[in-house]
Amino acid sequence: MVLTGTTPTARLSKFHAPEIVFGHDSLGETAHAAVRLGARRPFVVTDPGLTEAGWPDELLTHLRGAGLAPRLWQEITPNPKDHEIQAGFERYENSGCDVVIGVGGGSVIDAAKGVALLASNGGAIGDYEGIDRITSPIPRWSWCRPPRAPGPTSPSSASSPTPSGAPRSRSWAGRWSRTSR
């Protein structure tokens, strides 16, 4: 509640969680989730370890089977760096993608959210360090954690299912958050 003069006014806050798919056959269900989100060209974010395990290839097969034209991006490291997120955004934009799908744990999810943030707000990821700096909603996105894949690795911040992220830079370690939109 915010007080202005003598009349209290309520402040409205809202939280939007992405569609989160997990468990047996989650990769196949993710294709259906992408279709429900209106995807035509999903941008699949993952990491090299999961690529070696074969999960992204299986997901791409399901996405193509649903009539979609997915693009894969896996050039991220643990605790993704600002330049990696920028490169992912440029690939998203140049590929004409319309939905972001993250397959993996906390670093993958932070990178996917960072790409989605830049897709709708522009600029550089460092521009959003702090709270309430995001002015436009991010594109729709989904998170898929295949069985036996690493789960979110940010238990202290629980950043994976939240609208926050923690990209790193060579010169700063920032965190961005969208708390009241």
How many β-strands, per DSSP?
10
State the end-to-end CA separation. Answer: 16 Å
User: Which percent range describes the beta-strand content?
Assistant: 15-25%
By DSSP (H or I, 4+ residues per run), the number of helices equals: 5
Q: What is the succession of H and E elements?
A: EEEHEHHEHEHEEEE
Mean pLDDT: 76
Low-confidence stretches: 146-161, 168-181
Gyration radius, in Å: 17 Å
Structural class: alpha/beta
Largest sheet: 5 strands, parallel
Please tell me what the overall shape is.
Answer: globular
Structure description:
The structure is a single chain. 31% of the residues lie in helices and 18% in strands. It contains 5 helices and 10 strands; from the N terminus they run βββαβααβαβαββββ. The chain has helices at 26-36, 48-53, 55-65, 82-94, 106-121; strands at 2-4, 7-9, 19-22, 42-45, 71-73, 99-103, 130-131, 141-145, 164-165, 176-177. The strands form 3 sheets. A 5-stranded parallel sheet has the order 3-8-6-4-5, with helices on both faces. It has a 3-stranded mixed sheet with strand order 7-10-9. The longest helix is centred in the middle third of the chain and has 16 residues, at 106-121. The protein is globular and about 55 Å long.
